[in-house]
Predict the structure.
Amino acid sequence: MMPDEDERMDEQPLFDTGPNQHKKQLLETCRIAYDAGVPHALYISLSLCREWNEPVPTAIMDQVLGVLEQAFGSGFFNTGKGGPHCNPLNRYRDDIAHFARWEAVEAARKAGANSADLFADAAELMEGTAYAVGEDAMRNSYRIIEKALDDPSQGSRLFFLTHPSAKNLGLDL
């Protein structure tokens, strides 16, 4: 069970650089205002932390993460190009499926599957899972991940698939 924001603000010092009551009161006012429905109070609190060259307090960072989680879910980050991948969450969900299948192919390879049966064996490994597909789709997923791994601009997105915070966005490998 997570403590509410008021408990966190009381338990944790706002800044590690020493007490500064004015800064603490101003950021606490921003935090309360944001919780009361004043959206720009969050922006102001972040701007103040930057202006003061202070780290962002945990309670305010929690608010920022909440905004980003809502933005991902609402389609705010859609590319506008249309199609199933204009929403990055849809793209990441597909990446997760392709990545899980790629891992199954690698596991089949390590288990000694010959090249002729590699994708069929990998498909068998995935039976009964959310990512189960046939041999041809397994081959296609494997190629997508291999291509992404060869391109640094694409491969870097795969790193984030396994980070625990991805679960907060509904992404789970």
